[in-house]
């Protein structure tokens, strides 16, 4: 019981509840069902990206290019929808996922085959992908009126008064939960992150997993490309700039260790929910939007310090027991 | 008994295999191609003015070289520029003396750098993740302070420094960069401090055991990186004569590209100031030439990204191929 109460995920859950209640006291409108459903819709993209980023962080890497990947695949399908408005929405979603996956594979190949360190690769592709948006769009925006009805058809769909976006996030959560906890792929990812050398000795092909992890990250970035563009009904060169930092902070807050191999899918989800709650609660308690960036920076630092402290303490106790 | 010499004997052929030599050839070919493509390239005044495009970044690239050789990385430099230029604008608006304004600006940069250094060394956290955090923290602080306003009044001295010339020819920013490059080359290649930084980068644990205060070096390097970002901030604010919170956005990438393209190994332990200086000129002349050819800034961004990945990827790919053949 005590172990359960001290569980990281449980503590995060309690923090989220306390946060929700205290914002509710300051502004009762915030905790009405419709408002909470809005917050969930708003956080869905963050949840999806945080879960896929988690896969990359598990193997001791980071994908900084997700936001640019999202923006590029979103822009490409938006341009297609202006030329071919008659295409069905599934076509756009599939295409967006495929584009995202290709961009992710490029990252993976550069890291695994060309041996370019992940930080250099993803910093590089972050600006390459962002730059390509200008090229394909000539720097122009695609406005809401230019999207076809087909393109926006799914986004207003609601089930149990929760939005399409939220249900997609739920589906992604279930997929990644099963992938990481109940498949060989997931176990191998954890062992690669925990101890790459040992993992290689037992025959895990590191390069294959790096490429796979980055393609999954790319796939979901592509999916979010469609979701983002459809939700905000605008595609421009500027969408989701800097969002990769929010995604990483969600992972770090969720207890995914940047040293690799440590972290749960549930924790990652809760981390994303907490960040989403904070982002949405700031306007509700009259804190200017301009503080958002500083606050997410401070949260990354705080969470990472707490994570490292607890990890170091764990190592010490293990040594004492021996 | 065979004698192992301190230095391998000098051979002319060895120069050909040096990274710096390859970089120099790249630089010369860029100069030749550029001057053939457009007649405006080889104009002395144009060339002098083109240094404005990269001098500020180049100043930070010098300390970044030290940071990367010591097996760290600092992604927060551009955000520190934002903080420092914000301090510069704010203290000017309060009506302080120019010297106090400059001192406070430099202090703010060093403080930000020291904050990075303190967290990295105190909690033993990797510098990538710490500076990802401070990158948004510092930038966020300037956003929350400035909101959507801006500063456009700076001391006369700052405006002069940013856009003026010594003897009417040499821009101050460029002059500062060249002088500092000599100082840093001396420190890195001729003093024991430089040797220690290399050994920290090669093997931090071993360096610790040989009695090098690794944490203290790391702390000082990050503080220095912050201080130099503040120096760059002074030149940049003087040149632009307006400071918004999004100033120098994305510069961390360009600065790291300068260093890595210059042959500094991203995991620490090797690299030279000469290589970095040549790569700064390569990138500077490249973007200047592309600009003269009316290729938009975005093209340069994509090119920089590609260059960054290929400059590391190509040599290591060749190495793997060669190993497979053996």
Average pLDDT value of chain A? 83
Q: Going across the biggest sheet of chain B, name each strand in turn.
A: 1-2
In CATH's first tier, which class of chain A applies?
Mainly Alpha
Q: What CATH architecture of chain B would you give?
A: Orthogonal Bundle
Strand count, sense and barrel status of the largest sheet of chain A are: 2 strands, antiparallel
CATH class of chain B: Mainly Alpha
Count of spatially separate domains of chain A: 1
Helix count of chain B? 15
**What is the total tally of β strands of chain A?**
2
End-to-end separation of chain A: 25 Å
Q: Which spans of chain B of ≥5 residues are poorly predicted at pLDDT below 50?
A: none
Range of helix content of chain A: over 70%
**What is the total tally of β strands of chain B?**
2
Which regions of chain A contain 5 or more consecutive residues with pLDDT less than 50? none
Please, could you describe this protein's structure?
The complex is a heterodimer of chains A (322) and B (326). Chain A has 14 helices and 2 strands. Chain A is an all-alpha fold. In chain A, strands 1-2 form a two-stranded antiparallel ribbon. Chain A has helices at residues 2-6, 8-26, 33-58, 66-83, 89-112, 118-137, 149-152, 164-182, 184-194, 196-201, 206-232, 243-253, 265-284, 292-321, and strands at 158-159, 162-163. Chain A is globular. Chain B is mainly alpha-helical and 326 residues long. Chain B has a single domain, classed as ABC transporter involved in vitamin B12 uptake, BtuC, CATH 1.10.3470. Chain B has 15 helices and 2 strands. Chain B is globular and about 70 Å long. The two termini of chain B are 32 Å apart. Classes of the chains: A mainly alpha (322), B mainly alpha (326). At the A-B interface, helix 6, helix 12 and helix 14 of A face helix 7, helix 13 and helix 15 of B.
């Amino acid at each position: 019981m005590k172990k359960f109460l001290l569980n990281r995920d449980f503590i995060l859950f309690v923090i989220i509840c306390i946060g929700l209640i205290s914002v509710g006291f300051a502004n009762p409108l915030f905790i009405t069902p419709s408002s909470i459903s809005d917050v969930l819709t708003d956080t869905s993209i963050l949840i999806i990206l945080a879960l896929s980023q988690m896969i990359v962080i598990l193997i001791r890497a980071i994908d900084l290019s997700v936001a640019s990947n999202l923006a590029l695949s979103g822009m490409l399908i938006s341009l297609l929808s202006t030329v071919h408005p008659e295409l069905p929405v599934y076509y756009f979603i599939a295409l967006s996922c495929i584009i995202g996956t290709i961009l992710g594979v490029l990252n993976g190949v550069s890291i695994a085959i060309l041996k370019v360190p992940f930080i250099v690769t993803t910093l590089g592709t972050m600006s390459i992908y962002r730059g390509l948006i200008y090229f394909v769009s000539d720097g122009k925006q695609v406005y809401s009126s230019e999207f076809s009805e087909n393109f926006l058809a799914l986004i207003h769909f609601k089930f149990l008064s929760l939005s399409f976006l939220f249900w997609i996030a739920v589906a992604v959560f279930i997929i990644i939960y099963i992938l990481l906890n109940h498949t060989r792929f997931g176990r191998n990812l954890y062992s690669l992150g925990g101890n790459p050398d040992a993992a290689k000795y037992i025959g895990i092909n590191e390069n294959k997993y790096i490429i796979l992890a980055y393609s999954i990250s790319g796939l979901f970035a592509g999916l979010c490309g469609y979701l983002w563009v459809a939700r905000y009904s605008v595609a421009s060169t500027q969408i989701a700039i800097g969002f990769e930092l929010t995604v990483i902070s969600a992972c770090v807050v969720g207890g995914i260790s940047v040293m690799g191999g440590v972290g749960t899918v549930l924790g990652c989800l809760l981390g994303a929910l907490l960040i989403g709650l904070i982002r949405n609660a700031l306007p509700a308690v009259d804190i200017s939007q301009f503080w958002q960036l500083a606050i997410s920076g401070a949260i990354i630092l705080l969470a990472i310090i707490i994570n490292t402290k607890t990890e170091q303490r764990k190592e010490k106790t293990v040594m004492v027991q021996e | 008994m065979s004698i192992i010499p301190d230095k391998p004997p000098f051979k002319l052929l060895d120069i050909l295999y040096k990274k710096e030599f390859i970089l120099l050839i790249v630089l010369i070919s860029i100069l030749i191609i550029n001057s053939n493509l457009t007649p405006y390239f080889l104009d002395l005044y144009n060339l002098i003015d083109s240094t404005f495009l990269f001098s500020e970044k180049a100043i930070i690239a010098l300390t970044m070289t030290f940071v990367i050789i010591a097996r760290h990385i600092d992604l927060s430099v551009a955000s520190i520029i934002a903080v420092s230029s914000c301090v510069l604008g704010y203290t000017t608006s309060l009506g302080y003396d120019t010297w106090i304004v400059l001192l406070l600006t430099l202090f703010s940069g060093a403080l930000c750098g020291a904050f990075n250094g303190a967290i990295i060394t105190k909690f033993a956290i990797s510098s990538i993740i710490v500076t990802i955090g401070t990158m948004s923290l510092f930038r966020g602080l300037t956003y929350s302070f400035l909101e959507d306003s801006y500063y456009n009044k700076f001391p006369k001295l700052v405006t002069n420094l940013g856009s003026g010339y010594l003897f009417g020819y040499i821009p101050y920013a460029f002059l500062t960069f060249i002088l500092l490059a000599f100082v840093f080359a001396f420190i890195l290649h001729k003093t024991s401090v430089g040797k220690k930084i290399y050994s920290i980068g090669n093997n931090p644990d071993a360096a610790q055991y040989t009695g090098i205060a690794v944490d203290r070096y790391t702390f000082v390097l990050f503080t220095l990186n912050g201080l130099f970002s503040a120096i760059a901030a002074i030149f940049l604010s003087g040149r632009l004569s307006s400071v918004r919170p999004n100033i120098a956005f994305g510069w961390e990438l360009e600065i790291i590209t300068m260093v890595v393209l210059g042959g500094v190994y991203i995991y620490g332990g090797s690299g030279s100031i000469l290589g970095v200086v040549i790569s700064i000129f390569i990138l500077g002349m490249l973007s200047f030439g592309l600009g003269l050819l009316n290729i938009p800034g975005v093209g340069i961004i994509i090119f920089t990204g590609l260059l960054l990945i290929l400059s590391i990827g190509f040599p290591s790919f060749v190495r793997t191929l060669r190993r497979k053949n053996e």
